[in-house]
Amino acid sequence: MLAPNNSKSILLIRAGRLGDTIWATSAIEPLRQHYGLDVEIDLLIHRSMEGLFRHDPRIRNIFQIHHRSLPIVLTKAKRNVLSWSRKKPYDLAVDLETGTDFLPLMARIIAHKKVIARDVLKDVPPMATHAVSYLRQVLSFCVPQELALSACPTLVVSDESINSFERFGIHGNYCVLHPGNSLVARNKPALRSWPIKHWRTLIGLLSEYFPDLQVVIVGEPKEMSYVDSIAAASPRILNLCGHTSLPELMEIISKANFLVSSDTGPSHLAAALGTPVISLFGPTDPELTGPLSCKKDRITVLRTNLSCSPCINHPDFDTCRSARCMEYLNPNQVVNAASTIGRF
């Protein structure tokens, strides 16, 4: 006869995209510290984010949702969550969303304790601080204050190789560049982007100062034409834009000497994996959307601090045509930062 399973169980709900989902992982370690390392954690996430946790031994079930606003009767993932809670009530269910899409589900989930971010943060001004700071406030209703304040994003790469290095021909020391971002992917004015000429100059400087360092470029399929125009600058570039799955991208970033990107998802991915990050900021505010890591000495944010920056939530952003805040960031600054925080 099998021994009864007395471990605790927790449900976390956060059905956002890459940055939001990575920030939500800040809850995992404080909850494990409080409820025990054998706690069984279930996630309800957007289906495109499943690869982040496919090989994560900390996670028991991954419930994947596509249309978050559909009612429970039309959403298999929501019905499956309810089924699990009926088999064995959750010790804790946490809705990390600030909207109302999952309130009906939370009302029906069977759990000894429920925490809803929307209720906790109802008197907190939106976008007044970093998303992880909001999450820490929510966590303070779940775990002791000192654990809540220690929360930072964490991801786990499989101990069993996904064979990314053999498949793509990566060897020795290498860095990862991610030139794209969501505006590039949507074919909108790339005001958050570093100029193509700067990326090309950076690639030349990396070859000069780190001749044994392989340069790997990554990105999603919608960014391929943009990235191709950069990768064409050197035959030594390994251009993987549009060719990696999410677990493969995680494995590649986790072993890199460092990653360079603008304000975009892979910078958060690198930070959560403990990889040194050089993040380039202009229109956006790193205090609100910058990469966070428990290893603070592995993150360098470069910005020009122009009087008009940040402008992302101001009318100036919609009328800006020059993006001087990104133009004035010098490639030599990036090389100097890589020399300081890179793993060599």
Structural summary, described in words:
The chain has 344 residues and is of the alpha/beta class. 36% of the residues lie in helices and 14% in strands. Strand 7 (214-217), helix 11 and strand 8 (238-239) form a beta-alpha-beta unit. Helix 1 (18-24) runs parallel beside helix 13 (265-273) and helix 10 crosses helix 17. The radius of gyration is 21 Å and the shape is globular. The chain starts with 8 loop residues before the first strand and ends with a helix.
Labels describing this entry:
about 350 residues; alpha/beta; five-stranded parallel sheet; 17 helices; about 35% helix
- What is the typical, i.e. mean, pLDDT? 90
| Distinct helical segment count | 17
- Largest β-sheet summary: 6 strands, parallel
Strand residues, percent: 5-15%
> What is the helix fraction of residues, given as a range?
25-40%
Distance between the termini: 53 Å
User: Helix and strand string, N-terminal first?
Assistant: EHHEEHEHEHHHHEHHEHEHEHEHEHHH
Structural class: alpha/beta
Shape: globular
Strand runs, count: 11
Oligomer: single chain
Contiguous runs where pLDDT drops below 50 for at least 5 residues:
none
Q: How are the strands of the biggest sheet laid out side by side?
A: 8-7-6-9-10-11
What gyration radius follows from the Cα positions, in whole Å? Answer: 21 Å
